[in-house]
Amino acid sequence: MLKSSVRPCRTMCAVYWFLDLIRAAPNILKAASRRLFSATRVQAVSTMAADEEVVGTVKDQLAKLFEESLRVTVPDQTDTDPLIAACNPRFGDYQCNNAMSLWTKIKGTGSAFTGPQPVGQAIMTNLPRSEMIESCSIAGPGFVNVKLSRQWIAKSIQKMLIKGIETWSPKLRVKRAVVDFSSPNIAKEMHVGHLRSTIIGDTLARMLEFSNVEVLRRNHVGDWGTQVSISVCLRVCMHIYVSVYLFVSSDLACINIIAFYKASKQRFDSDPGFKERAQQAVVSLQGGKEKYRKAWSQICEISRKGYEKVYQRLGIVLEEKGESFYNPYIPGVLEELGKKGLIEESEGARVIFIEGKKYPFIVVKSDGGFNYASTDLTALWYRLNEEKAEWMIYVTDVGQREHFEMLFTAAKRAGWLPPGDNSYPKANHVGFGLVLGEDGKRFRTRSTEVVKLVDLLDEAKSRCKAALVERGKAEEWTEEELEQTAEAVGYGAVKYADLKNNRLTNYTFNFDQMLNDQGNTAVYLLYAHARICSIIRKSGKDVEELKKTGALVLEHPNERALGLHLLQFAEIVEEACTNLLPNVLCEYLYNLSGHFTTFYTNCQTSPNRWCCQSLVAFVLWGQRRRQADSCCVKRLQRSCGNASIYLVFGQSTRYDILGEDSSHLQKDFDNYVWAHDYRYYAQCIRHCEKVKDCARTVQYRSDI
Ligand SMILES: NC(=[NH2+])NCCC[C@H](N)C(=O)O
Questions:
Q1: CB burial class (10 A; 0-12, 13-18, 19+) of residue 203?
Q2: Could you report the per-residue pLDDT of 50-104, keeping only the tens digit for each?
Q3: pLDDT at position 661, please?
Q4: For residue 699, what are the β-bridge partners?
Q5: Is residue 197 in contact with ligand 1, taking CB distance under 6 Å?
Q6: Beta carbons within 8 Å of 565's beta carbon, 6+ residues apart
Q7: Which residues contact 328 (CB under 8 A, 6 or more apart)?
Q8: CA-based max dimension of the chain
Q9: For position 298, what pLDDT does the model report?
Q10: How far is CA 615 from CA 49, 411, 643, in A?
Q11: Is the Cβ–Cβ distance between 137 and 530 less than 8 Å?
Q12: How far is CA 447 from CA 88, 451, 543, in A?
């Protein structure tokens, strides 16, 4: 959980930030990279031309160099794309993997090379000189390992910092995409399946938007002819509503739509007369009879109010274009497909046969009605032709994979989409696994009902609130701050627990795990972010000024590792977008927090030295300031045993001295620092607590 010293307003900035995890991912990067500009590291002034050209990801830049080398090494192989990948840090930062495949192509063709290793060697030798590369080496059968220059890494990060957030975004090949996600069904409760679709879809949309793609966020709600079974129920529900609304009640608020749906379904199953009336109601509705249409739109309105509340809580923006929207376009689209010879008659229905599939894609049912498939075909046509989207992304559970495979194959046969999967316009189904309970079975409530989304969010929030109250936040914060923080942390935790897994796996819903402040959780990341903000705030430095006038220097290996990781952000977002995998970005953020912690711990001063320096400062300045000399230090040292000061101060409490020159104390104390008495330092800490208010020049930090 968040540490007590992080002040509420800041905490909330941080947690709100997390609600915007993906959109704000660059902020954590920014914050982390700013830290590199610590006061001791600011060196010569360097100014950057504001209009310097954006050059692409590290991989792209390396690929350009290797492309040149390949042109010289194997001039006949003009279609060879450089294969660049990040590599095991023991061997370098990146590697070029072309040698093996090139060798397979050229061996026996009279080439001068005698094996893949010499090919690799030649690729390495022919690399053009570049300030990017510090050194290269050859490994195994011709892999060329590249170690990047630390000056170049430093320069590139600085460039990004100065030029702003846009330069962190990858350049994708598409301009406009549709992300079809969430898409609950009218008159039914949103459940955990819709939660996954909402969270994953929103994240994909954010990542694409960050990559400068215009995203049409579409809520394809089931408000018309949904899957056969659901649509029947829905229609019954509509029928009942028609009666209720018209004859019983005009007060919409008094209707519990879910209970009503259940009752109507029960009656539909048990009463044939009712069933018939319900089916007639559908005909009347589709025929556009005024009172049925009116009742239908009222039902939609009630449902919409329900799921909009969920979107608001989760910070989701969506535009509803439900199934009914496409209804008027269906006949025209089917006519076009018919003319192209795609549609055939089968057992009274009209279908598209898809090679390799057991069942055809039914586009008109035997009763003449349209269905889920005809709506989706039409929606795809609309998105391509009317909305001019180049990439259609559908986020649903993996159970619908078959449906989308058939849909996309039909679209390819119609010539709407190109064959193959790599060219645009293209369509992808983003499937996800089930949400499981701790028993490993489908997540349900005790009464075996589906778990309602609102209940989950309520519980996440109330657990967070309880944890905050336990930490004494109720006394420090206003009720509103407490509520907002609990919401942000709770909902963030639910989102992140879902996103961090590969979406195709089933994931187990566990509150204890997702709200843990250790390990790969939202709470841990939020904490890391809050801590970084706090460090910057307390440093008292003008970061904007440092950004402009300071030059970054990456000396320590941990500093370099953090710098390189920051630099790889764009290619990670690109990978996450291309493969539609938000977990790639989550993993990156988690590792970033790790890199930052290591950097912060190991660079500048070691924690031990820092603690000691601060401790001495407190004891001497607070108690007997004028006698702050080596004699006191020696006295201190005499009463020390062997335990490490780190045990006492650990990662949780440090004191930072600003504005006073404590270097002489530091030097003296360094000589004695490695032997300490645990009890003695425990006393010192208590003492420090007492005197901290007096020591104006000393800044208290318990945020580490
Ligand atoms: N274009 C689509 N088929 N989008 C997904 C719709 C999901 C559907 N309403 C369901 O709850 O399963």
A1: buried
A2: 344 556 889 999 999 999 999 999 998 888 999 999 998 889 999 999 999 999 9
A3: 34
A4: 656
A5: no
A6: 588, 591, 592, 595
A7: none
A8: 101
A9: 72
A10: 45, 71, 15
A11: no
A12: 50, 10, 55
pLDDT in tens, 432-490: 998 888 888 877 765 556 677 788 889 999 999 999 999 898 999 999 999 998 998 89
Going by C-beta distance under 8 Å and a sequence separation of 6 or more, which residues neighbour residue 336?
381, 414
User: Ligand 1 within 6 A of 180 CB?
Assistant: yes
Spatial contact of 490 and 499, defined as CB atoms under 8 Å apart = no
Task: Summarize pLDDT for 192-205 with one digit per residue, the tens.
Answer: 888 999 999 999 99
CA 496 to chain centroid, in Å, comes to 8
First-to-last alpha carbon distance for the chain, in angstroms, is 13
Residue 376 Cβ < 6 Å to ligand 1: yes
Percent of the chain past pLDDT 90, that is, above it, reads 38
Sheet of strand 361-364: strand arrangement: 344-346, 349-352, 361-364
The identity of residue 367, as a single letter, is: D
Q: Give the dihedral sign, CA 438/439/443/444.
A: negative
The rounded Å distance from CA 380 to ligand 1 centre is 13
- Percent helix, strand and coil across the chain, each to the nearest 5: 55, 10, 35
Look at the chain and count its residues.
704
More confident residue, 121 or 246: 121
pTM for this predicted structure: 0.76
306 within ligand 1 shell (Cβ under 6 A):
no
Q: Which of 200, 319, 400, 404 to mutate to test the pocket of ligand 1 (most atoms within 8 A of CB)?
A: 400
Cα(271) to centroid(ligand 1), Å? 29
Tell me how far the alpha carbon of residue 400 lies from the centroid of ligand 1, in angstroms: 9
Query: What is the per-residue pLDDT across 270-295, written as a single tens digit (0 to 9) for each?
Result: 777 767 766 676 667 777 777 677 76
Q: How far apart are CA 74 and CA 106, in angstroms?
A: 9
**Which residue, 17, 1, 10, 9, is CA-closest to 472?**
1
Residue 148's pLDDT is 97
Locus of tokens 């705030």: 537
Query: For 486-545, what is each residue's pLDDT tens digit?
Result: 998 899 999 999 999 999 988 888 888 888 888 888 888 888 777 777 777 777 777 777
